[in-house]
Design brief:
The chain has 90 residues and is α+β, with helices and mostly antiparallel strands. The chain folds into two domains: 38 residues; 52 residues, IHF-like DNA-binding proteins (HU Protein, Chain A). Helices cover 43% and strands 30% of the residues.
Length: 90
């Protein structure tokens, strides 16, 4: 499901216009991105948690040449599914 399909699905379930749903979805994504980028977590009970995790620096290998490549430390986004979401997917 892509963004347009998600907007159409939510609009049909709620009776809101696609334009309104798209605005709400954009605001949601913006809120999650800005919160996680500040190293805070966004928890939606029953759905899951969006957070930033720190990856340590490491040395990997270039698969084409086999040469070692240093990968710097960085923060990356992570989503952990909640209990209800995990149960629904089983």
């Amino acid at each position: 499901m892509n963004k347009a399909q998600l907007v159409a699905h939510i609009a049909s379930k709620t009776g809101l216009t696609k334009k309104d749903v798209a605005s709400v979805l954009e605001a949601f994504v913006d809120a999650v991105v800005s919160t996680v980028s500040k190293n805070d977590a966004v928890t939606l009970t029953g759905f899951g948690t969006f957070k930033a995790v720190h990856r340590k620096a490491s040395t990997k290998r270039n698969p084409k040449t086999g040469a070692p490549v240093k990968v710097p430390a960085k923060n990356v986004p992570k989503f952990t599914a909640g209990k209800a979401f995990k149960e629904a997917v089983k």
